[in-house]
Design a protein that fits this description.
Blueprint: H1 4-29, H2 32-48, H3 53-66, H4 69-82, H5 87-104, H6 107-123, H7 128-141, H8 144-157, H9 162-174, H10 178-184
Helix pairs in contact: 1-2, 2-3, 3-4, 3-5, 4-5, 5-6, 6-7, 7-8, 7-9, 8-9, 9-10
Length: 185
């Protein structure tokens, strides 16, 4: 009994790893059918190795890509619980809440998106994507100073990225700094 547990546990982890690797290939193909295959494989991998945040994150991202927002949020929440100091789960949650807000215009979804993306950006200050996604959401909340800070952080983290310049220009414009925005545009 007890001697078989480590062997079966190792076998389950190896099987989960193989399923994860296969799912990555299916996700790269990015068709409806290959996404379904990837989701099934990742669901099985998370059952075989339930504490593995990498598999949970991949499943959350796959659900998000498929438009299964509630399931995606649940997986991203699990990642954030398993690895609270890692930005990826919070960023995924922020994106899921943002998509929910865009669909339903529910203020709680906007607030959830801002909260999670702020956490992700704080945990990984060099994450241009987190700052870029956060800036217009802060504008929507009426936090123009926060939007400017986020936009400038995006620009600082990747000065060559045109989206970062656009975020700065938009935040400046929305803040009433039209001349400065024009210079950036």
């Amino acid at each position: 009994g007890a001697a078989a547990d480590p062997v079966s546990s190792n076998r389950a982890r190896e099987q989960a790893g193989a399923l994860y690797q296969r799912s990555l290939g299916w996700l790269l193909r990015n068709t409806v059918e290959t996404r379904r295959q990837a989701v099934r494989a990742l669901e099985e991998a998370t059952l075989l190795d339930p504490g593995n945040a990498t598999y949970e994150l991949a499943l959350g991202r796959a659900y998000y890509t498929c438009g299964f927002l509630k399931r995606a949020r649940q997986r991203f929440e699990r990642v954030a619980q398993l690895q609270p100091g890692d930005a990826a789960g919070h960023a995924g949650l922020g994106l899921a809440w943002r998509r929910d807000w865009l669909k339903y215009l529910d203020r709680r979804s906007l607030d959830g998106a801002v909260e999670q993306l702020t956490t992700a950006a704080r945990l990984d200050s060099g994450s241009t994507d987190a700052w870029l996604t956060l800036a217009p959401l802060l504008v929507e909340q009426g936090d123009l100073a926060g939007a400017l800070r986020a936009a400038f952080r995006a620009l600082r983290s990747d000065s060559g990225r045109s989206e970062a310049r656009l975020a700065v220009a938009q935040a400046l414009y929305r803040s009433g700094l039209v001349h400065e925005a024009d210079s950036v545009f």
